[in-house]
């Protein structure tokens, strides 16, 4: 009987994920012919066709779907086994697979750096995407932990709150609204409010805020990235609603400022979570414990200059 290699299983999993041999080859740092050979060898061993061409894409056959599912489980179990063996030697090692919504990408360095510096054997695989993308990655077991504002209703997760999350209406310091004594949500909506795409955390938050105040969620523009919103707003092309984590540099350099209005910023919670029916590796459990214990303090230090500025504002705007 022929033995299957981990490389063959990984080739099938990545081809299934990317629907492309070339993209799978890039992810594995191999040549396209090498990945094709791995797939052919696996098909010879199983005696069944595992993939088929669908235009420019590669799709799995029914047998390929079954094999890809078991391949993912086998590869994941092997990684968990190596982590458990390392733990017996008192070493925290393995690959930390974590996903975070785009709003949280500026939050992650102060969390990940102190954790990994003390654990040099830990490898990191970080995925950043919108809320829907991160939920799908968690459901497909591509990541073990996810960081987002509100736990998903679509999945059963064990979620823990670890920090507060400030989001704010921002504009260029030269924007006309900056000189107005009393700014309302109607003023903001009339000033070309730029928001992220549907499904993002900040979009969900601003829609909730508007509903609570009796406003229709009608926006000036929908933009697919925080960076694009910041550039447009700093150029005077409207106002934005963004995570304070994403605007630290722009606040410091004077490119952006918070609108002087009551209840700005608004705060929500950051949560870290994993699937409730899925045992997570020790390295993921260690990071989750670290974040729950230290997350709020690390976030506070990261935003210390912001909160100092916030305390200097008139009481009416806090």
From TrEMBL:
Alphabetized UniProt keyword annotations: DNA-binding, Transcription, Transcription regulation
Segments forming domain HTH lysR-type: 4-61
Organism per entry: Duganella margarita
Gene Ontology molecular function: any one: DNA-binding transcription factor activity
Keyword Membrane belongs to the record: no
Stored InterPro entries: LysR_HTH_N, LysR_subst-bd, WH-like_DNA-bd_sf, WH_DNA-bd_sf
Protein family per UniProt: Belongs to the LysR transcriptional regulatory family.
Full protein name: LysR family transcriptional regulator
């Amino acid at each position: 009987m022929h033995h299957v290699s981990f490389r063959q299983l990984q080739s099938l999993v990545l081809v299934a994920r990317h629907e492309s041999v070339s993209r799978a080859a890039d992810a594995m740092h191999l040549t396209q012919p090498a990945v094709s050979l791995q797939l052919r060898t696996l098909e010879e061993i199983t005696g069944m066709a595992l993939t088929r061409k669908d235009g420019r894409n590669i799709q799995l056959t029914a047998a390929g779907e079954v094999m890809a599912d078991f391949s993912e489980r086998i590869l994941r179990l092997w990684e968990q086994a190596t982590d458990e063996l390392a733990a017996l030697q008192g070493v925290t090692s393995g690959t930390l697979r974590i996903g975070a919504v785009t709003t949280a990408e500026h939050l992650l360095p102060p969390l990940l750096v102190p954790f990994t510096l003390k654990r040099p054997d830990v490898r990191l695989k970080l995925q950043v995407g919108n809320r829907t993308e991160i939920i799908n990655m968690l459901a497909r077991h591509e990541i073990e932990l996810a960081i987002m504002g509100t736990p998903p209703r679509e999945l059963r997760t064990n979620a823990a709150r670890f920090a507060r999350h400030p989001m704010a209406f921002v504009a260029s310091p030269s924007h006309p609204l900056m000189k107005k004594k009393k700014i309302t949500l109607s003023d903001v909506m009339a000033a070309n409010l730029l928001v992220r795409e549907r499904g993002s955390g900040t979009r969900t938050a601003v829609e909730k805020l508007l509903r609570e105040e009796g406003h229709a969620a009608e926006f000036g523009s929908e933009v697919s990235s925080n960076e694009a919103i910041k550039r447009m707003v700093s150029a005077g092309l409207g106002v934005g609603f963004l995570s304070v984590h994403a605007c630290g540099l722009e606040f410091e350099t004077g490119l952006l400022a918070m609108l002087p209005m009551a209840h700005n910023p608004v705060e929500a919670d950051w949560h870290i979570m994993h699937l409730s029916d899925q045992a997570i590796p020790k390295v993921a459990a260690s990071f989750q414990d670290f974040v729950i214990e230290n997350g709020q303090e690390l976030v506070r230090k990261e935003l210390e200059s912001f909160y100092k500025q916030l305390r200097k504002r008139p009481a009416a705007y806090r």
